[in-house]
Amino acid sequence: MPGRSCPLARRYSRKRQKRSLNDYDFELDRVLSWLRDEGAKRVLIEAPEGLKQKIVAEVLPALSSYTVFMSSKPFHGACEVGDEEAGSLGVDHVIHFGHLQMVARRFPALYVPAYYDFDPSPSFAELDILLAKGGRNIAVAASVQYLRALKPISEHLSEKGFNVMVENGKRTKAPAQILGCDYFALTSLAGKADQFLIVTAGDFHALGAVFALNRELLQLDPYSLSWKKLDPTALRSWVIGESYAWTKLEDAAKVGVIVGTEPGQRFLWEAEQAAAELRRSGKHVDIISASNLDPAQLSALPYDVLILAACPRLPYDDADSFSKPVVSVFSVLFGRPLGLRGWLNGNDLTVKSKQSSGIVEQGFSVKRVEKYSTVRDPVVQAHGSPLPYRFKRLSKC
Amino acid sequence: MPGRSCPLARRYSRKRQKRSLNDYDFELDRVLSWLRDEGAKRVLIEAPEGLKQKIVAEVLPALSSYTVFMSSKPFHGACEVGDEEAGSLGVDHVIHFGHLQMVARRFPALYVPAYYDFDPSPSFAELDILLAKGGRNIAVAASVQYLRALKPISEHLSEKGFNVMVENGKRTKAPAQILGCDYFALTSLAGKADQFLIVTAGDFHALGAVFALNRELLQLDPYSLSWKKLDPTALRSWVIGESYAWTKLEDAAKVGVIVGTEPGQRFLWEAEQAAAELRRSGKHVDIISASNLDPAQLSALPYDVLILAACPRLPYDDADSFSKPVVSVFSVLFGRPLGLRGWLNGNDLTVKSKQSSGIVEQGFSVKRVEKYSTVRDPVVQAHGSPLPYRFKRLSKC
Which range of residues forms the domain containing residue A244? Predict the structure, then answer.
C-alpha cells in the first residue's frame, strides 16, 4: 500500500475523521479528560493572538465547570510561558494552545497544537510539475499547525516514486516540525535531500527556512492551497538591514544589549558575552532586560545601536519597528552580520567562551567552544561585507 | 523656632545640602554602600519610564563593578515589580528607583524614591493669597518625588499661623504620601482640614486626589512653581465616560473581566466577585489575565464591555485608549458608575462577599463585609444616574 512506510503516516493521522475540514482542532475531548483526570480547579488558558478569538468562542464555554483565566499574553511561540500569571492567579493547571511544549513549566501544562485540518490534494497537480525537474529525495517539514498535512503529501510523493525524508529539530517536539528559531529538521538534511518542501502559512517560517538553508524551497500555503518557490533573494531586506546596522555598530559609542527573559528567548550567556566583547572594543554597553519587547520603548533608550538577545528573529523580521539600528546577538558573537544563520546551523562561535553566567538555559544554546570558526557566509560575501569583522577600538570617552 | 514642631521637618530634610537643586536625588552613596554591605554581584535596576534615561546616564556608570541589568518594564508604580525578570536573569539584588516599597519582594530590594529637590519658596506669595479666604487647618500631601518640599512649605504655613495636618495613606510608606490609588493621607482628614494642598507634577495624582476627596484642592507644580486650584468639575470626562460605559454594560451580552497580575494591581477577589455578579445577571463572562495591559490588544477580544480589575485608574485615565467601553471592577461591586471613589474611601461593597479565591492579596483590598452599602455618590447623582443600579437580567443566549 503506497505511503504505508511513511514515518508520518501514523503520527499525524486524524483520529476523529468526522471533524470538519478547514478548521483548527482544539481537541476538546482530550482537554476535558485531562482536566478531569488531573482534578483541576483553576485553569489558565494560553494561546497566541491569532487563535484567541476562536478559543474564547469555542473553548471557554466548554470549561464552565472550572474557574478559567484566559491570559492576554501574546504567546508568539512555545518560548513564551504564562507561569508568572499562573502563580499570581493561584492557578493549578495550564492549557497552552497553538504550540508543542519547548521549555520546562512550573505548573502541570497540557499543550494542544491546534492542528489545522485541511485536504492538500487539490495542490498535488501543481506540486508534481514543480518537483519534476529536481532530484528524487524530498525533505518535508511543517510548522506545528500543519504537520497533519504531511501525511497525505508524503503518501502522494511515495506514490509518485519520490523518497520522502524526515528529520527532527532541536527545540521541537515532533518529527518534521520547524519553528521560527529551529530549522534543523531541514538543515540536517542539507547534504542528503535534493528538494525541500514545507507547509506553513505566511512568510514567517518560510523566510526563516530559506535563510537557514540558504537555498531554494517550496512552500504550500494551507489556505490558498497554492505552492510558492522561495529562494534567498527574498532575504534582501534582512541582508541590507543588518549590514547597515552593523556599520552603525562599528561607530557606536553606546550600545544597549537587550536580553529577553521569557524562558525560550533568554539568551543570557550570549548577551553577557556580547557585552564583554563590545566593551573590549571600548564601547559603553548596558544590558537591558525585557519580558515584554516593545520596540518603540526600547528604541527610546539612549543607545546608538541595540543588540537583540531575545527572539532570534526580532532583528530581522521586526527591524523596521525599531527606530534604532538593531543587530542580532549572534552576529556579534560570530563577528559578522547575519550571524543568526550560523546559530541556526549550530556553527561554532568566533567569540571565545571565557565564563558562564551560571544560569542554565532552558532552551538550547550555541555551542560554547574554545576555538574560532572559519565559517564564511555566502550571502554576506556577495554583498561585500569585510570578513571576518573586528570592532574598531574607540578611544575611551 | 518656626516650623520646628512640624512632623515633616526631620523626615524630609535633605541630608546632603550640597546637592544641586532642580534635580532628582538617586542617592548613589546609599545605593553603593547597600550593594557593598549586601555583597551583591548581579543587580537588576527597576525605574519608571520617566526616569530611565537619567538612570542610564547617571546611575549605571557608577555600578560598573557589578553585573547590572536594567529592566525595560515601565514600572508605572510601586505596584509593579520585576521579580520574574530578576529570577530569569539570576539576579541577587534589586534596586528600584522612583517609588517607595508597596508589595513584598522575592529578592532583597532597595527602594530609592528619587526625590526631586527644589525650592518652593518663590511660590509662597501666591500660596498666601490663595489660602487667605479659607480656614486655618491645612492638610498637606505629595506624591513621593516631591515629599521633601513639604518641609519648607509646612514651615512657611506654620510661620503664617496655619495648622499643618499630616496623615498616613494605606498603601504608602511615608506620612503625607499619595499614590494614584491611595489618597487616604487626604481623605482621612476630610472632616478636620479646611483646605487641602498637594505637591505633584502633571494631572495624574492631582485628578485622583480631587476625585477621592470630591472637593476643591490646591496643587503646586514643582517645575513651574505655580499653584493651581482644582475642583471636581475637572472630572467631567471620567463621569461621562464611565456612565456611558455603564449603559453599555447594562445591554452587554459578553463581558470580559480583565485582572492584573502585577502584585499591587491584582484585584483577583474583586474580579471573581464581579464575574459572578454579572453572570447572575445572565451575561456571558470570561476572566482575562494581564501582566502587561495593552488596551488595543484587550479591546480586540470579542467582548461588548471590559471590566478592569487592574490599576484602578485605568478605566478613567485611559478609557480613550480602549476601543471598547470600560468599567471599573469597583463600579460593578458598588453597583454604580464611579465606584472607584467608594474604594478610595474604604467604603463597604454593595456586593455580598460569598467566597474568597483563597489568594492573599499583597496590597490592601476593599472590606469584605456581609452588609450592603448605603453610600450615595453626589457626582453621579448630579448627573442623574439611577442609584442603586441593578443589572437587567438578559435571556440566556
Answer: 235-382
